[in-house]
Amino acid sequence: MKLTMAQALVKFLDNQYICFDGKETKFVDGIFGIFGHGCVVGIGQALEQGGHSLRYYQGHNEQGMAHAAIAYAKQMHRRKIIACTSSIGPGALNMVTACGTATANRIPLLVLPGDTFACRQPDPVLQQIEQYDSCAITANDAFKAVCKYWDRINRPEQLMTACINAMRVLTDPADTGAVCIAMPQDVEAEAFDYPDYFLQKRVWYMDRRVPSEREIDSACELIRNSKKPMIIVGGGVTYSDSDKSVLAMAEKYNIPIGETQAGKGQIPFAHPLNMGGCGVTGGPAANAIAKQTDLVIAVGTRLTDFTTCSKWGFHNPDVKMLSINVCPFDAFKMDATAVIADAKAAVDAICAKLDYKSEWAKEIADAKSAYEAEIDRCHNEKLDGVLSQKRALGIINETVADDAVIIGSSGSLPGCLQRIWKSKAPDTYHVEYGFSCMGYEICGALGAKLAAGDREVYSMVGDGSFLMLHSELYTAIQENKKINVMLFDNSGWGCIENLQNNQGTDTFGTRFTRRNDESGLLDGEIIMTDYAKIAEGYGCKAYRVTTEEELYAAMEDSKKQTGCTLFDIKVGHKSMTDGYDSWWRVGVAEVSGSERVQECYEDMKANIAKARLY
pLDDT, tens digit, for every residue of 56-90? Predict the structure, then answer.
């Protein structure tokens, strides 16, 4: 078929399918786009002329729409995507941050930025960045550092190999992430006789990688020789639909479970073996168990510093690591014995072969009981004259529907959520914490809503992150997709202020204050912002909340609304959760005039000595 490169791209994307566990589904559901001169008459024309089933979504910030696409793919267990297209220069570069978010979290994201002219005749074109040492470099080369696959289409026939490689990465559970195909604006409109076989329906098989017999034997031997193992559930458990298999293993062998941010919610919170979140943003139960364990069974987790407390969290001198992961890069972290396989396939194979019982006794029940009591304390915390952030979360947790989806990413809220949020059903806890990208929360809520259908979606966002990016709230209104923005206003970057103070430095640059004309510093009065009025300007139903009674009433009224809502919740300064005997390594100043900073530096050195070296 004689088609422009952009027309062929649209037709190709419309015919991509995946097959997982024998179920075949369409892979590309639509395209987010913000049209500029670099794409509007290329891929924009191809989308406008029709002949395809891709839905076009109008984004309002390129980073925001790409974050919505990431959240959509995450909520769909990486089996469906929405592509993103932009113009050249600033529009394209806005998506670089989102590509970092996707790749860090192992989520498929396809970005299609416009590019400068391949023929170079009109150069320098509007929004082009000129490099004196090479005419081949454009702004889109910036995507290389944050993408799993990068390509530029300088001739229309190059589209075919680029698309096959892009789909190879996007559908690979072990190597997925962001994919960038840069599209020079002249080439987008150039025609080529594309062969029928390129444009026909293509099915990509996401087969479960089966472990080898040697790997299973090694895993069984490690577990058999352990006394007090623990399981850490990561995002791989979510994406492989292996939650039931992991829980069956825990029950069969009496193994307590800790959760990462990406794995939380798949195992019922109420289950007696679920110790909740582990690590820096974890709770007291999992962190206490981690200090005693002699074998960590990491299932589908990248073992980040937040999960391992910067490799400090496991205090048993004989502790060993067993990592079940489809990605070899992740499977060998922390000198682990690796089972490179699909989580469900590996866990089922272990359970079929191993006869074993751990030596855990009342420690599990004691840790769980104390943890539940601590959550109840946090959920019911009372402060004089102000609403506690922990109390607000408790009320929301109590009143949302069991199948409601909560979404978060940055600030103090992910810590509070991992520690004290009780997930009531699978696929209801959606926190992006691989990149902890400010601005994901509201934009991601749109993507989660597109995937979640009639279920309510609640965006847990701080005032700092709201100010940074909430562009796709407008898109949610435009698409008639109701999202509920739970804006926790503590007048600053609260979690970073805590980090700053805990490492010996007084509050500086982390509260939202006016410039003091006398001192010249940002230490004047706190700026009080009416965020509800901003939301009302967009057309949202807004609630101003300063008391628990107002929050209860707003929660009930919001359920009657059909459009987007925003809760402007004023919470007390430093009313978030504690660290629960965790440690996070940050670079404390080695030289300082502050005695407190010097003490923190010595404390850091002492904790480094307790951590694993690799």
Answer: 999 999 999 999 999 999 999 999 999 999 999 99
Note the pLDDT of residue 613.
Answer: 85
* Nearest residue to 208 (alpha-carbon basis) of 78, 344, 26: 344
Q: Does 575 reside within a domain? A: no
What is the distance between the alpha carbons of residues 69 and 77, in angstroms, rounded to a whole number? Answer: 13
477 C-beta neighbours (distance < 10 Å), count = 17
> For the chain, which residues score pLDDT lower than 50?
none
Report how far residue 118's alpha carbon sits from residue 489's, in angstroms, rounded to the nearest whole number. Answer: 48
Strands 178-184 and 109-115: parallel
Residue 387 DSSP one-character state: B
Q: Going by C-beta distance under 8 Å and a sequence separation of 6 or more, which residues neighbour residue 226?
A: 294, 295, 320, 358
Contact yes or no for 23/210 (Cβ under 8 A): no
Q: Is 170 exposed, middle or buried (CB count within 10 Å of its CB: 0-12, 13-18, 19+)?
A: buried
Q: What is the dihedral of CA 555, 559, 563, 564, to 10 degrees?
A: 30
pTM of the model: 0.97
Q: What are phi and psi of 488, to 5 degrees?
A: -95, 110
The DSSP string of 399-416 is HS-TT-EEEE-STTHHHH
Q: How many domains are contained in the chain?
A: 3
Residue among 445, 403, 410, 446 at smallest CA distance from 427: 403
**Angstrom distance (rounded) from CA 111 to CA 130:** 22
Same domain, residue pair 161 and 259: no
Give the other-Cβ count within 10 Å of 291's Cβ: 15
Both tokens of 206, joined, read 């996401």
Residue 72 has a pLDDT of: 98
Number of H helices, E strands in the chain: 25, 23
Residue 593 domain flag: no
Specify the pairing of strand 16-20 against strand 23-26: antiparallel
DSSP 424: -
What gap in Å lies between CA 460 and CA 15, rounded to an integer?
A: 36
Whether 570 contacts 387, CB under 8 Å:
yes
Looking at residue 580, its pLDDT comes to: 93
Report in angstroms the alpha-carbon separations of 219 from 116, 224, 330, 353.
Answer: 52, 9, 16, 10
Q: Which helix (H) or strand (E) is 57 found in, with range? A: strand 55-58
Asked, for residue 595, whether it belongs to a domain, the answer is: no
- Which of the listed residues 167, 189, 205 is the one where a domain comes to its end? 205
* Per-residue burial over 576-614, b = 16 or more CB atoms within 10 Å of its CB, e = otherwise: bbebbebbbeeebeeeeeeeebbebbeebeeeeeebeee
> Residue with structure tokens 């109390």?
391
Q: Report whether 504 contacts 592 (CB < 8 A).
A: yes
Residue 71 in domain:
yes
For residue 407, what is the domain's CATH number? 3.40.50.970
3-state helix/strand/coil string of 330-374: HHCHHHCEEEECCHHHHHHHHHHHCCCCCCCCHHHHHHHHHHHHH
